[in-house]
Here is the input.
Amino acid sequence: MFADETRPFLQGARLTAWELVRDGIPTTVITDNMSGALMQQRRVNLVVVGADRIAANGDTANKIGTYGVAVLAREHQIPFYVAAPLSTIDLQCPDGSQIPIEERNRKEVTHVGGSQVAPDGALVWNPAFDVTPHHFITGIITERGIFRPPYIDSLKRAFA
Here is the structure.
């Protein structure tokens, strides 16, 4: 099992890896940039990510970097699943373009542990989330089962 660290807050290293190890699952922490190399080496069979919000059509907002992992998974023919509670699905939100993306403080990128790592005057773009389009998602795993495309129909059935 690989846990992607997710910059700048390292949730994969601090939270995901902690939970997996606590549950007795052997876990290797990787940085955000390493997933492509692992996929190219055929060391990944399946990708499972979380979600902060899922639109009615299945577009999914999650921690920044998720979209890139989905693109890499597609390129390497690796199934890409989203695991989230039903409460994450917003049937009133038609698609990912309607999901607001939070911009985080620039110092999260320019500083590490109180030390400045980027030069003064450097501009920063620091979104907390990105949106993975539904066509990259193999299935959405919830407490009521796995929902598959077309999500506009299957996600409605999840609430029936």
In short: The chain is about 25% helix and 25% strand.
